[in-house]
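Exercise 7.
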Amino acid sequence: MDWRDDGLIIGARRHGETSVILELMTRGHGRHLGLVRGGRSRRLRPVLQPGNLVAAQWRARLEDHLGALTVEPLAARAAHLLDRAAALNGVASLCALLRLLPERDPHEDLFEMADAIAARLGDIREFEIAATMMARFELALLGALGFGLDLNACALTGAQDDLAYVSPKSGRAVSRAVGAPWRDKLLPYPDFLQHESVAAAQGDLIAAFRLTGYFLTRHVLNPRGVTLPAARDLYIDALARAA
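Solution. The predicted structure, written as tokens, is:
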């Protein structure tokens, strides 16, 4: 078995004295692990950092084996994250969320989104753009895991205009007029999640993370006995301070 693919590094753990088991989110092969011999060397250690993009080759005798990975750097981003806590927490949260995906289950759209986010997290000029993409990524992740929200029309009237809330029980959108009497019990549905062209204010970003976090916790994390990554809370706190 042999394939080549682009991969976003989402983690590495020590294996023996000189090697690491590398975890990638690849474009065509999903979340994938492999052994990198010499991965703890001075040459490879800076390459095998979360958020970096690499060209990877995986080889194994049988498909279900761990296999061996060789990598070459395509985009070295980790150095740009080191001096910004918000960026480090953002990439740590992104990597932790990608680990919720089953191994070797391709999701090219999520790879593209995650790679675009990682490319922007280290640039302070694109802080809000990266956050907007992160919120949309979490919504797409819910769908990929089989828990997509029904947000195209009001659950009660079928109207597609002026959607302002999401029911925490059904995961369906609710229009502003219908939901007004129960707005304290509903989750906000920010405009920028509905329309790509709408810019997101910090308050709307925080509301969006509240929405996605609620359903990730309810449908994905609680059944597994885990919680949202602490880095995600720290990343959202940085957004709140920026506001």
